[in-house]
Amino acid sequence: MGLNPQSVRSFARRWLLPLGLPFALAAPAWAQEPIRIGSFLSVTGPASFLGDPEQKTLEMQVDKINAEGGVLGRKLQLTVYDDAGDAEKARTFAKRLLEQDKVDVIVGGSTTGTTMAAVPLAEAAGVPFISLAGAVVIVEPVKKWVFKTPHTDRMACDKIFVDMKARGFTKAALISGSGGFDKSMRGECLKVAPNHGVQIVADETYGAADTDMTAQLTKIKGSGAQAVLNAGFGQGPAIVTRNHKQVGVNLPLYQSHGVASKEYIKLSGDAAEGVRLPAAALLVADLLPAGDPQKPVVTGYRNAYEGKFKSDVSTFGGHALDGLMIAVDAIKAAGGTDRAKVRDAIEATKGYVGTGGVVNMSATDHMGLDLSAFRMLEVKGGNWSLVK
User: In whole angstroms, what is the distance from residue 314 CA to residue 305 CA?
Assistant: First the structure.
């Protein structure tokens, strides 16, 4: 004959507690189950400038949440694998998270390539997946279980071309790398340039292992362009920046949000002076007006991160913070970890103020940011400044 919960509690109070034995049977088993957060990140390798701050941020925030009592009375359990920027490794780790670790949600995917390798698996498994990568292909067309926190490459193109036009530039040269993000942003910039009355008069590319882009920049110098846009991330943009100065390309240089960290300025040296790029408010937290809704969020995160790790904050860690907190808020709204309910709650996110902007998702928008979430920055005196 089975015992009902009330009988179990009565038995425990009568016989176990007097003996000093743990009252383990009194609590429902599910109350002890952790909420499993899975992640695969490019912690090492060429994209480590993305994955390293992302991992640190996730660990820091999970520790903070757990110290404050967890979520719905349950601890968060974070499992992170390092894919080193390799798409095949990312696929393997995503499969492990889904099939062996039985995660409730995935917050990860540092690059577009690693993210897209995992998308079919998350979709097939029916597990919410919040990517930290930039390309628009991640969320367009909309995929039921896939979301993202960073601004898209298309948004970056739009923001840059708006700034170019405001400065009177109507002819631009493109130079881009060979990675997934680079190719995607190049394609998006080619698509939207006509919408802004900008003509692309040169379109040069470089390989992932290239260490000198002077040949491409020499062609650009003679193309009649009024400004140069580098669609890329990683080491490539820093090389382009240095070569841009060495070749004497006396044209304004724009970079993507894929290099929105102090590391880019350090790698580029004084050649970065005057470079403009769109980025999240996080990089200019102190320059935001007092009434900006993002100011307390970005200053709080920056102070916590830099205080703990003694290194500069980057927008990439911010994307991880936003991804985790959107997932946590969705789990709270869903009242648990039922995957379908959590997915629906993520999609219903409205008014979430994060490091990347104010997020308003919908069934047709699995990112939830508009162009106002981007700030145009310029490197001045070896630091970021806010373009008015």
Answer: 10
Q: What is the pLDDT of residue 261?
A: 87
Q: What pLDDT, on a 0 to 100 scale, did the predictor assign at position 32?
A: 73
CA distance 112 to 83: 13
How far is residue 153 from each of residues 76, 181, 240, 321, 338, measured CA to CA in Å?
Answer: 32, 8, 19, 20, 32
Q: Which of 247, 244, 252, 101 is nearest to 172 (CA)?
A: 252
Rounded Cα–Cα distance for residues 165 and 4 (Å): 72
What is the phi/psi pair of residue 203, to 5°?
-145, 90
User: If we measure between CA atoms, which residue out of 291, 279, 316 comes closest to residue 301?
Assistant: 316
Structural domains in the chain (count): 3
Task: Indicate if 244 and 356 belong to the same structural domain.
Answer: no
Same domain, 28 and 84: no
Question: Which of 110, 134, 243, 131 shows the shortest CA–CA distance to 182?
Answer: 134
State the virtual CA torsion across 324, 327, 333, 335 in degrees, nearest 10: -100
Give me the average pLDDT of each 10-residue run along the chain (388 residues).
44 42 42 90 94 98 98 98 98 98 98 97 98 95 98 95 98 94 95 98 95 97 98 92 97 94 93 96 92 96 97 94 98 98 98 97 97 94 92
CATH code assigned at 98: 3.40.50.2300
The answer to whether the beta carbons of residues 302 and 311 sit under 8 Å apart is no
For residue 11, the model assigns a pLDDT of 38
Residues 190 and 249 grouped into a single domain = yes
> Are 209 and 275 members of one domain?
yes
Same domain? 262 vs 324? no
Q: What is the pLDDT of residue 179?
A: 87
Please give the Cα distance from 77 to 322 (Å, whole number).
17
pTM (2 d.p.): 0.85
In whole angstroms, what is the distance from residue 375 CA to residue 201 CA? 26
64 near 75, Cβ under 8 Å? no
